[in-house]
Design goal:
Number of helices: 3
Helix content: 55-70%
Radius of gyration: 12 Å
Largest sheet: none
Structural class: mainly alpha
Number of domains: 1
Strand content: under 5%
Oligomer: single chain
Length: 50
C-alpha cells in the first residue's frame, strides 16, 4: 500500500535518504563526502519540507 508521508515518517525518510546516497554513490563519490551525511541533518531538511 502506498500512502502520503506524514511528519511521523520524517526520521525514517531521513534514514533512507542517507543510506540510499551512501549505497548509490559508493565508488562514485569520495568516501569522505558520503561519511559526512547524517540523519540528524536530513531530519532538519525533511522537517522543513513538511
Amino acid at each position: 500500500m502506498i500512502r502520503l508521508a506524514t511528519p511521523a515518517d520524517i526520521t525514517q525518510i531521513a534514514a533512507v535518504h542517507v543510506q540510499s546516497w551512501r549505497e548509490t554513490y559508493q565508488g562514485l563519490a569520495k568516501s569522505e563526502i558520503l561519511a559526512t551525511l547524517n540523519v540528524v541533518q536530513k531530519i532538519q531538511i525533511w522537517t522543513q519540507v513538511f
